[in-house]
Amino acid sequence: MNENINSADGAQPEPLKLIETANAANAGGATLPEIERADELLKNRAKKPSEIIEGMAHVSTKLVLASGSKVGKTWILIAWLIAVVTGTQIWKFKTKKGKGLLVNFEIRSEFMTDRIEIIQKHGNHADLGNLHVWNLRGVTVDFEQLTEAIIERARAENYSLIVLDPIYKTMVGRSENSASTVGILCKQIDRIIEATGAAVIFAHHYTKGVNGG
After folding, report:
1. Which of 64, 186, 194, 205 would you call most buried, defined as having the most Cβ atoms within 10 angstroms of its Cβ?
2. Is this model's pTM higher than 0.90 or not?
């Protein structure tokens, strides 16, 4: 029997609306994964993604470097990138050689070039041809649009590591410490990861001053 169940005003009851919404999502391929048993997970372990920086960063993952402001996060990120593009050890961590992209939102190109040169000379790195730099200081663009641009360029270059520095520059008009903004940010970064297969590292600084009582 196929009956239409409607309320007095002709609208469908709320539970039916939810079911139809779920069916529509499933029809579009947005199905949810099955719930899994822990013993089955242990027996059939999924293979972990390969490491780009030993013990720190894996292929197709995201990593945040967070600290107070003005403590040298950009220097660290450049050093990590140079280690990856040259396949050399950084501190005590081994790296897997691959192409890297630095998306620079804040530092003038001339000064960014100076920093790269200093780290190159300090580590005696001869060839930085696999390190690409995208200087976007002063460029105002919605992060959703920027995500599409990063994906387009990254697919063509097959980057293994992408660095976004600093991340707050992508949040024009939004609070970088609000839950909703962080949710939007993580969704866009996940899109970059899924579309390119690269690991994404971004810099974040803690709120200045004291929050709360």
Report:
1. 205
2. no
